[in-house]
């Protein structure tokens, strides 16, 4: 079920605030999907989803391999009959301030601060589609 990005249901938005593990799907260079578990935060005001990870991870390599304009990706979470998918274009961000902001958002949603990691980067997703029912 597609949702209007500029008028998302309060239940859908609340679902993105709850503690749920998610999946991130990125395209490999050969076009096949690479799906991995991740933590995701979503900022509906800017239509931005964020995933923090190691800069050497396969998901980061996949996004970078798509070129400077980014890779089309999806993040998804499921809990019983509720599900939500955010789609958009992902880019890799290495600026320390942006990474620190993403870590703080992760800590708020998942109620734990990840250990410091000098290799940490941000996969920032410009969300252009929201599916599901929260």
What's a quick, concise take on this entry?
The protein has 3 helices and 8 strands, in the order E-H-E-E-E-E-H-E-E-H-E. It is of the alpha+beta class. The longest helix has 15 residues.
Q: Describe it for me?
A:
The protein has 134 residues and is α+β, with helices and mostly antiparallel strands. 22% of the residues lie in helices and 44% in strands. Strands 1, 2, 3, 4, 5, 6, 7 and 8 form an eight-stranded antiparallel β-sheet that branches. A hairpin with a 5-residue loop joins strand 2 and strand 3 (33-38). The longest helix is centred in the C-terminal third of the chain and has 15 residues, at 96-110. The model has no long low-confidence stretch (mean pLDDT 96).
Blueprint of the fold:
Elements lengths: L1 E2 L6 H6 L6 E6 L5 E6 L2 E3 L4 E7 L3 H8 L5 E9 L2 E12 L2 H15 L9 E14 L1
Antiparallel strand pairs: 1-8, 2-3, 2-6, 4-5, 5-8, 6-7, 7-8
| Residue share in β-strands | 35-45%
The assigned structural class equals: alpha+beta
Summed up, the helix count is 3
Distance between the termini: 11 Å
Determine the mean pLDDT.
Answer: 96
Main β-sheet, in a few words?
8 strands, antiparallel
Order of helices and strands: EHEEEEHEEHE
How big is the Rg? Answer: 14 Å
Global shape: globular
Low-confidence stretches: none
Fraction of residues in helix: 10-25%
- Number of DSSP strands? 8
């Amino acid at each position: 079920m597609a949702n209007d990005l500029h008028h998302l249901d309060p239940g859908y938005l609340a679902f993105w605030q709850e503690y749920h593990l998610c999946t991130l799907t990125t395209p490999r260079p050969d076009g096949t999907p690479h799906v991995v578990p991740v933590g995701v935060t979503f900022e509906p005001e800017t239509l931005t989803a964020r995933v923090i990870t190691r800069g050497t991870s396969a998901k980061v390599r996949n996004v970078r391999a798509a070129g400077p304009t980014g890779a089309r990706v999806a993040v998804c979470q499921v809990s019983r009959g509720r599900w939500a998918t955010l789609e958009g274009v992902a880019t890799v961000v290495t600026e320390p301030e942006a990474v620190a902001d993403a870590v703080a958002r992760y800590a708020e949603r998942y109620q734990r601060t990840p250990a410091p990691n000098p290799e940490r980067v941000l996969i920032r997703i410009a969300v252009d589609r929201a599916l599901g029912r929260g």
